[in-house]
Amino acid sequence: MTAPIVRFAPSPTGLIHIGNARTALLNFLHAETHGGGFILRYDDTDVERSRREFADAIAEDLAWLGVTPTRVERQSERTGVYRAAVAKLKAMGRLYPAYETPDELERRRRRQLARGLPPIYDRAALRLTPDEIAAFEAEGRRPHWRFKLDGRAVSWDDGVRGPQTVDTASLSDPVLVRADGSFLYTLPSVVDDIDMGVTDVIRGEDHVTNTGVQIEIFEALGGPVPRFAHHNLLAATTGEALSKRLGSLSIRSLREAGYEAMTVASIAVLIGSSEEVHAYGSLAELAPHAELSAMSRSTAKFDPHELDTINARLVHHLDYDAVRARLAALDADLGEAFWLAVRDNLAKLADAVEWAEVARSDAVSVKADGEGDFLAEAARLLPEEPWDETTWGTWTKAVQTATGRKGKALFLPLRLALTGRDHGPEMKRLLPPIGRKATSARLS
Ligand code: GLU
Questions:
Q1: 115, 142, 177: which is the final residue of a domain?
Q2: How far apart are CA 200 and CA 213, in angstroms?
């Protein structure tokens, strides 16, 4: 296979969510795996709703996930290219002017439905006489432009779904240019895919019908038709579309909630594949599990609670080197021994802050009533430093011998006095980062 060129084409009209991340990652990993290129292309021909801030936020969120484009394009800067394509289609008789208002179209649609007919545009515009057109123009109406479909079975071999056919005879001729001269998504997308040498269009299955239409446009423009792969969509387990849950499931809010990028990326890719969802440590490790042909075709149900369990499992395996800078930024970098002591107890990396507090601050100590003498005795028996993971065992054995206590009666007052909590990381690992001086102070 020659190196693929793929593109992720978000409309910068809002933040991206985990479902969009799925599309972006499947494209990116496909390109990475095969040594190809990944174009970030903003579908921003809708000037009313597109915002530069959203475009920047999308790039930032993608970068957080590790998705870095080899090329960035904005459709709003390419209208000249689309106009040339429009001229070409007009000259070929594939683009025709239509003058119906949205109201008129809607009334016609309802009449068709009432008569049990499919609500397909009836091509009335093709039958307008020059006089009728002149009358519309005199009224001040400006035409929108429709692409004249061949009305045939358009087939392709889908990278996820296998052989597909869309019968374009059952579709309305799509509007490519609005009355105000602006472009709808359909045409610029095809023009850019041709112009940018896109070899693989990987997108959600909500675009399957579009693909039938767009293949006709690719062919009309004489461009090579790319390969298509339509992946299944993510839905929350409640059944609602993710876009409705954008508040909590935007990449931005998942990041702010403290989830690891690889948790989000792994879930985005693996939910609805035949593989068990597991958070891989890097995109390179995830890539072999992002095979398009292995994707399931049914809707991928996504339970937001999975974020927590999968994230915790990932954090428990993070090496100190991988987290050191982030711990430092949280003022929670107390060295490798500390990290190894606490990581198994964290749901999110930022939870290390709490344990850094515990290790650092004598204010955490809690002394159970009537335990003063016991703790004072334990303090007297503290081994000299240096301390390591054997210190806790040596020490508590000595305390046991001296006091006759064992089990919970032995360990719980010590844990409470040293951490202020009745649960937490293994004490044998936490003791060295707390150190002898602080331990002694907390016991007395
Ligand atoms: N802007 C379109 C979308 O987000 C792009 C679809 C495509 O990849 O062609 O659905």
A1: 177
A2: 17
Q: How many CB atoms lie within 10 A of CB 270?
A: 22
Ligand 1 atom nearest to 23, measured from its CA: 8
Cis status of the peptide bond prior to 386, with omega within 30 of 0: yes
Instruction: Examine the domain organization and report whether 5 and 59 are in the same domain.
Output: yes
- In angstroms, the Cα distances linking 349 to 210, 243, 266 are 42, 27, 17
pLDDT per residue, tens digit, the chain (444 aa), is 689 999 999 999 999 999 999 999 999 999 999 999 999 999 999 988 999 999 999 999 999 999 999 999 999 999 999 999 999 999 999 999 999 999 999 999 999 999 999 999 999 999 999 999 999 999 999 999 999 999 999 999 999 999 999 999 999 999 999 999 999 999 999 999 999 999 999 999 999 999 999 999 999 999 999 999 999 988 877 766 666 665 668 999 999 999 999 999 999 999 877 777 889 999 999 999 999 988 888 878 888 888 999 999 999 999 999 999 999 999 999 999 999 999 999 999 999 999 999 998 877 778 777 889 999 999 999 999 999 999 999 999 999 999 999 999 999 999 999 999 999 999 999 999 999 999 999 998
pTM equals 0.91
Q: What is the DSSP letter of 4?
A: P
How remote is the CA of residue 204 from the centroid of ligand 1, in Å? 8
Identify the residue whose C-alpha is closest to ligand 1 atom 10: 10
Domain match, 170 and 227 both:
no
Neighbours of 301 (CB within 10 A): 13
Residue 334: which CATH number?
Answer: 1.10.10
Ligand 1 atom 4 nearest Cα: 10
Residues 393 and 414 both lie in one domain: yes
Cβ of 43 below 6 Å from ligand 1: yes
* Atom from ligand 1 closest to the CA of residue 9: 5
Around Cβ 131, how many Cβ atoms within 10 Å?
8
How many domains would you assign to the chain? Answer: 3
Query: Does 236 sit in the ligand 1 pocket, CB within 6 Å?
Result: no
Domain residues for 388? 323-444
Same domain, 361 and 251: no
CB 11 near ligand 1, within 6 Å: yes
What CATH number does residue 126 fall under? 3.90.800.10
